[in-house]
Amino acid sequence: MSSYIINESKDGVIQFTINRAEKRNAVNYEVMEGLQKAIQLANKPESKLLVITGAGNEAFCSGGDLSVFHSLRTEEQAYGMLSKMAGILYDLMMLKTPSVALMNGTAVGGGCELATACDFRIARKGIKAGFIQGKLVITTGWGGGSFLFEKIAYPNALKMLTEAKTYPVDELSQLGFINYIFEGEPEEGLANFIKNMLAIDGDVHKAYKEMATRKWEGQNLRGRIEEEVRRCSVLWENEKHHKQVDLFINRK
Ligand SMILES: CC[C@@H](C(=O)O)C(=O)SCCNC(=O)CCNC(=O)[C@H](O)C(C)(C)COP(=O)(O)OP(=O)(O)OC[C@H]1O[C@@H](n2cnc3c(N)ncnc32)[C@H](O)[C@@H]1OP(=O)(O)O
After folding, report:
1. Residue range 24-66, pLDDT digits in tens
2. What is the 3-state secondary structure (H, E, C) of 45-89?
3. Whose CA is nearest to atom 16 of ligand 1?
4. pLDDT digits (tens, 9 = 90+) for 68-84
5. Residue 82 Cα, ligand 1 centroid: separation in angstroms?
6. Which of 19, 37, 108, 122 is the most exposed place for a label (fewest CB within 10 A)?
7. Which family does the similarity line name (predicted)?
8. Is 66's C-beta closer than 6 angstroms to any atom of ligand 1?
């Protein structure tokens, strides 16, 4: 079974689904490749919107697959994986079309970085999300910290990153992290959120997106992400990080 599913609708909506419900939609290398493909498709002139979601009802995305990435021990090894995903999320952030994180369930760690790279985050009532990386004695390492400082108010971003905890959806909305809350089926929530947007010509969307991406280019977002990846790689190598991951892996 593939780790991801890509659907293209006739109205120009590309949907990327992480298909690893049994692993709470953790990101492995195959998911990274799939995301790259979906971003390429969404950059085609006829595409209007990219939607990213997770399979099942439990999780949007639980971050990096700890069972796979736990074998990366050194700064250099961590840098290779982190910079790969950071590059993909940078491309997602700079996408020509708008993107929506359809948060059907919990998002933690890198799952929140993925959501932050999207233009909009819409969430089902009852879910929780948070940048819990601090509890693993690392920072965000996929560019998510740098993205967050661009997407929500500075004190709220710093609070979320330094508290390293999950928040309920109402609080996420107050923090400015969640843009829309829905109840019931994710497809319905998504349809309600995007219906007005889809009625507008895609060239208009692309023109507005360019205004934002030009600003991020001017502010050297790419260089800031590189620093974020490097800093996280240094922390990654530390035994304190590996000890925390061991606790999760051996918790049963
Ligand atoms: C590595 C990149 C880094 C970054 O740069 O940001 C990160 O992403 S750091 C963050 C890494 N993620 C985590 O620490 C989250 C770990 N998972 C959890 O805390 C919980 O699983 C959950 C996401 C809150 C969901 O809890 P729950 O619904 O109770 O499910 P379980 O805990 O029982 O998990 C079910 C199943 O899924 C496996 N799982 C969950 N998350 C991951 C993961 N990130 N990597 C690998 N596997 C994961 C979990 O082990 C269970 O599997 P089985 O034991 O085989 O049933």
Report:
1. 999 999 999 999 999 999 999 999 999 999 999 999 999 999 9
2. CCCCEEEEEECCCCEEECCECHHHHCCCCCHHHHHHHHHHHHHHH
3. 62
4. 999 999 999 999 999 99
5. 17
6. 37
7. Belongs to the enoyl-CoA hydratase/isomerase family.
8. yes
